[in-house]
Design brief:
Helices cover 37% and strands 19% of the residues. It contains 18 helices and 21 strands. Strands 8-13-12-11-9-10 form a 6-stranded mixed β-sheet. One of its GO terms (biological process) is 'de novo' IMP biosynthetic process. One of its GO terms (molecular function) is IMP cyclohydrolase activity.
Length: 505
Amino acid sequence: MKTALISVFDKNGIVEFCKGLKDLGFQLISTGGTYQLMKKEVEVKEVSELTDFPEILDGRVKTLHPRIHAGILFRREDAKHQKTVEELGIDSIDLVVNNLYPFEKVLRKEGVSEEEQVENIDIGGPSMIRAAAKNFRDVLVVTDAGDYEEVLLRLREGRNDLSYRESMAAKAFRYTAYYDALISEYFNNRLSVSDPEYLSLSYRLGTSLRYGENPHQNAAFYEKVYEENPAEWKQLHGKELSYNNYTDMYNAVRFVKEFSEPAVVGTKHNNPAGIGIGENIDEAFDKAYACDETSLFGGIFALNRPVTKHIAEVLHSFFMEIVIAPAYEEEALSILEEKKNLRVIVMPNLASFTLPKKTVKEVLGGILVQDYDDADLTEEMEVVSARKPTEEEMRDLCFGFKAVKMVASNGAVLVKDGATLGIGQGQVRRTWAVEDALSHGEGKHSGAVLASDGFFFADTVELLQKHGIRAAIQPGGSVKDPEVIELCNQYGIALVMTHIRHFRH
């Protein structure tokens, strides 16, 4: 008689599944709460009957016993293994059904104590799963209730073949690896471990996507499980999100989170095409939109205040991919929903959710992990020129340095009155980035200031003088800084150095 060991925390569907196993001639053994539930519905033995040893330590030790693990792990075609289990009177266990203590669920609960969290670290479950998965040539392991129906069907039809058992083993190892990674992340975060000698990250499949960056690339969205204050968002309208939508949406949101005042960021291909702040969200939107109406066609708008009727009417007038905001006025939402394909995203906690402490980037042979760029420029900011910026210029300089943080390096932005007038980005030469910013802001140079994500040389100062720019902000840090400061003083240009660099590669 075949034997199935059943030990599950999530008991959805387990009774019906076990009835199906019983009909197929399986002997059932089980543990704890699973046994208590099943014995009312189906004939089942308790594990302690098999091991002749009780559950102890408040259930911490139940299945950690040689009779259990030998019954799972012995190789059926190995005569020596067969002889050993026969001599010891150990029965084979041919099917293991297990899912684990809800460490993830408890992790998401508010006010959970360390003791409660630790008690939800499963020990016996992962051991059984790994044992069954290792011995997949002889044992079928089931870790997902969604597989119960197919398992029964295959057992009825005699299709519990080696390839299927191997695929279920692979799924089981993915499950335990994810579970262990989640626990590892919990302790790393709890203890503020900055550079662990081994790094495991826990993600869970959210949705499969139609394709990746390009139609020939397969892609999927995986949800980050361990987050202290995760983003909460919902799609209210429009087509399903694409790979590029996800990346653009993330960048637009993290850009707009730089500002506490009403702010709007319009992006295209992960780069800002217009940024504005204002006394109200309508003013901020108008400033962002005016920066580059042409480039914002087919782009994304992120707002840190509710979308108004005025904004919705403008957005309705041209093609765009996504609008994301903490809320929508009722009339504004009705207007936007007239655009069949426009993806409308609401994120109620846009202002309060926590951006990651670390960022990850793939490189040759591995990944790079670094702190998120959340430096406060005001801590090190210094006016280094003879001429001091006016109060208005200083406000725009600070705004500009936040804006240029969003730009691909080498980057520069021309700003005035809390709005980007021109953006130059992703250039291999700094003067080209400055030229781009000045060119895009042609005719609006009077009273504008310039921000750069990296230090200047004299050729940049010459461009500022040529175009009538009277104030600039940049990190400094070059051996040419004295020359740059002297030239700014000669031309009467106010120069602020932040001593903080904001490259975005």
